[in-house]
Amino acid sequence: MKNTILLFISFTALFSCKKDNKKSDSIIQTTENQSKIKVLDENKDFVIFITPTSKYIDSLKKTYKNEDDFYIIADDANYYTAEARDYILKNNIDTLDLYIDKKIRIGKIDIKLSKYKPWSLLLYRKGKIKNVFPVDIESELPQFYEIKTKTSNNLCNINKALDLINNLPEVQKQSKFVDSISLNKKRLSFMTDSLELDKQAYYMIKTGFSGEFHWETYTIFYINKNNCNEILVDETVTGDIISLKKWRKRNQ
Question: Exposed, middle or buried: residue 162 (CB in 10 Å: 0-12, 13-18, 19+)?
């Protein structure tokens, strides 16, 4: 699972996100063909989405033997970036998108965006700057901007949800099974998504085996985004979505 996260971190946030950010107009608007030096307001708080140019994307595609692999990573990157943007906007922080070949000036600070990883985020607040990845935004944003959050241990993010699922005894058995049938050459794989169940937001996490020619799903879990302790399971026989406790009783 850690390899899955690391893989995402290397290539996060590829294409346009699912929502337009109107607030970014108050800072700056940019296109790929504009001047490479941008002056930003040092008195505003904002998050910069560092975007690769089309030329950069084309060169990256050539590093893959199979272009489909590139688009698989792009889909994951698009999902996590959209989640990060929604989370940032909910906390009333402005965002803007700048290409990686740009130079920016914030007050007396000059920055070349090319020094940072493409598809990462640059947080700015009161002269302070921090580079983070979209997958880490829910833990990094409150601390950097000193946003008061609930102290409940039940608060959830995708990393915590994945760790909880990976540590379930049933999933550990699946992991050992994949190790055995692949002679330790493969690892249990995870697929993630988001959805609503009864008007509540959940992470959907599928466990399975990613073979050379197909994906085989083992179990589908649903984790409440507001409470990681609430785990539901897709019962494959009936098609019902039931609690983890009830699922375990059925499968004793």
Answer: buried
Quote the CA–CA distance of 3 and 146 in Å, as a whole number.
31
Residue 111 dihedral angles phi and psi, to the nearest 5°? -135, 135
| Nearest of 193, 134, 162, 159 to residue 13 by alpha carbon | 134
Burial grade of 55 (CB within 10 A; 0-12, 13-18, 19 or more)? exposed
Whether this model's pTM surpasses 0.70: no
Distance from C-alpha of 210 to C-alpha of 93, rounded to nearest angstrom: 38
The residue among 159, 4, 152 whose CA lies nearest residue 73 is 4
pLDDT per residue over 224-247, tens digit each?
A: 998 898 999 998 888 899 999 899
* Contact between residue 1 and residue 190 where contact means Cβ atoms under 8 Å apart: yes
Structural domain spans, the chain: 2-144, 158-250
Rounded Cα distance between 58 and 144, Å, is: 34
